[in-house]
TrEMBL record:
Name of this chain's protein: MerR family transcriptional regulator
SUPFAM superfamilies on file: Putative DNA-binding domain
PANTHER family documented for this protein: MERR-FAMILY TRANSCRIPTIONAL REGULATOR, REDOX-CYCLING DRUG-SENSING TRANSCRIPTIONAL ACTIVATOR SOXR
Keyword Transmembrane helix: no
Short name of one Pfam family: MerR_1
UniProtKB keywords: DNA-binding, Repressor, Transcription, Transcription regulation
Cross-referenced InterPro entries: DNA-bd_dom_put_sf, MerR-type_HTH_dom, MerR_fam
The keyword Transcription is annotated on this UniProt entry: yes
Record-annotated HTH merR-type domain positions: 112-180
């Protein structure tokens, strides 16, 4: 075990946890109870570490269990599903970037909306809009009939908040962003999108590294 922990640079506790979770091929033990690892175990450990860098923990663990059970096709489809989600995230980011960065230059067709109308446009619940208003992100006007109305600037803010909440921004970060003057806001938005795109690109690269290691591991299992 000491040799294996030194080789793959993890603790013996981590190795035992992988074994207890049923992620590894059966490990032979000596009469004295010492573990004896083989090359396939080394590849299993390396594969787990690579998968965890690009996939969710539950996905990485499920892939290892499926491979060990000989369910290779099922594991490949699980990878395809995770990659499909990453593609969807990247496409959504591109759509949001194009949409949001065009808002300052464009006048909206709807320049005054009631809360229900705004919620429908932004595809959120009215409770979300009320919450954002309570947190100081939006300002409504009260009409003579007592209804809440949102002017064009607040409509644009709502659309920005909705898009950013689908990525990495927290409420307080969005509040600070919207408080800036327009040129500063646009610059921060551009930086946000570049930063998020870089993270998605990095995740894709990590996934591909994990997939490469996983395919080697699957081949070894098939030949074992």
């Amino acid at each position: 075990m000491k040799q294996m922990t030194a080789l793959i640079k993890v603790s013996d506790t981590t190795l035992k946890r992988y074994e207890n979770f049923g992620l590894l091929p059966k490990i032979r033990k000596t009469a004295g109870g010492q573990r004896r690892y083989q090359e396939i175990h080394r590849q299993a450990f390396l594969t787990i570490r690579k998968l965890l860098q690009g996939f969710e923990i539950t996905t990485a663990y499920e892939l290892m269990r499926l491979a060990l059970a000989g369910e290779f096709s099922q594991s490949y489809w699980l990878i395809a599903q995770a990659q499909k989600q990453l593609v969807a995230d990247e496409e959504a980011l591109r759509r949001n970037r194009t949409f949001i960065l065009s808002l300052p230059q464009e006048h909206l067709a709807q320049q005054r909306l009631r809360i229900g109308e705004l919620a429908k446009l932004a595809q959120v619940e009215t409770s979300a809009i009320r919450y954002w208003e309570e947190r100081g992100l939006l300002i409504s006007q009260r009409g003579e009939n007592g209804y809440r109305y949102y002017e064009e600037e607040e409509i644009k803010k709502t659309l920005i908040i909705t898009s950013l909440r689908k990525t990495i921004y927290a409420i307080e970060e969005i509040k600070e962003l919207l408080a800036n003057k327009e040129p500063e806001t646009i610059q921060k938005l551009k930086h946000h999108f570049l930063e998020t795109k870089a993270k998605i690109d990095e995740k894709l690269a990590k996934q591909l590294e994990g997939i490469a290691a996983f395919m080697i591991y699957c081949t070894m299992l098939k030949e074992n």
